[in-house]
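Class, study these two lines:
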Amino acid sequence: MKSKDELIDELLTLAFAEDVGDGDHTTLSTIPADEMGAQRLIVKEEGILAGVDIARKVFEKFDPELKMTVYIEDGAHVKPGDIAFKVEGRVRSLLQTERIMLNIMQRMSGIATTTARYQKRLEGLKTKVLDTRKTTPGMRMLEKEAVRIGGGCNHRIGLFDMILIKDNHVDFAGGIPQAVQAAKDYCKANGKNLKIEVEVRNTDEINLALAAGVDRIMLDNFTPERTREAVELINGRTEIESSGGITIDTLRAYGECGVDYISVGALTHSVKGLDMSFKAG
């Protein structure tokens, strides 16, 4: 299995391949090879900055001689006019890395900003907002990191680091008891130490999941009223996650029911990037 750093490096390799191709002919034809200069990342919209560490990887991968001076770190609240960092070196390198770096920075900062806004709605409660697997293919590690920077929590990274038994698994396996036992047997046989979560649709399934001994129960498409009843029934015996159609407007109502987590696909699947530019200076 590839590490996080290996996946990010492969992502950057692909990004350069699709953007630069056999050369940035505009830059190569208009800028002398020995021209030196500097560019600054200028924030144009209020939000949470994310992606500075990845931007550094972009510059280092393309041209290790580029010098990056950071003024604002990941996780900081930024406003229009703030200068996040300056990069000095070959102008050709600055121009060829600009768009890839901006695409990553804008996307990650948009996710971090959205996550911070959701988590703020839960202020004063124990509930944490979770991301999902509804991410841009190839960018999951970056988008999950942006959620963390924004103050949220990562759910499982992929299909490999947690067992999440959903309704289709339950139906194909013949029921919750059968599915959970099969998962436990699988983990034991394969030397895996994975948490087991089960998605439930009603009170009967909650009782079956509790009896089976799971690490977390996901309440799927429950109303706040039903969620409160479920929390009382579970009574601290396992972690509780709410999921399904929960918006920023309904988020607080679910948190006040006493759930541990609320998963929100919108943190990553429909986020507007934070506006910023990379200008000479």
